[in-house]
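Supplementary Text 2. Reproducibility record for the structural model of the 195-residue chain.

All settings were left at their defaults, and a single model was retained for analysis rather than an ensemble. We include the record here because the model underlies the residue-level annotations in Supplementary Table 4.
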Amino acid sequence: MGKQTPDRSASDDQIIDLYWQRDDDAIQQTDTKYGRLLWNVAHNILYDSSDCEECCNDAYFGIWNAIPSARPTAFSAFIIQIMRRIAINRYKEQSRKKRIPSQLTVSIEDLENAISDGRSVEEMYEAEELGALINDYVKTLNNRRRYIFVDRYYLAEPVDKIASSLSISPQTVYREIEHIKRGLKDYLEKNGVYL
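Retained model, structure tokens:
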């Protein structure tokens, strides 16, 4: 019968089913629907097209290996997390060799300055309780602030791009980020986390 042509309208459940069936078309369907998003996540961290392509290939391999062991309920979040992990690992590897510019560095340093007492961000993120509290805080944000938080600190998007996508000025995004950071610090302190 041959392979089907990629279908942009394939639902996440249909794509996941292809992974469960161990159908190679799952990767093509994922690439068609989410390839550009995954590439952008990698690019925001690495700023190198060839590295992004390699990360995409590694991500598809990672997704292939992760499913069917897991059946993600939020497929896009699941695959973005795999891509972020791969791109961050590549970034760490490269930054050991030389300093490279990255929105990841900018956004993580920005967040670290807001809530850190000198411990590394890696140490803070390894604390499961802190991650859960941050997730709970993000749920309290209105839609615009949640979008800004996720785009800036999860997808490592540049402020100008966030501003453009929301049709607001970069200064407004910076003000929102400052409000989000103050709110996060207050929220953590109210929950017994003093950083």
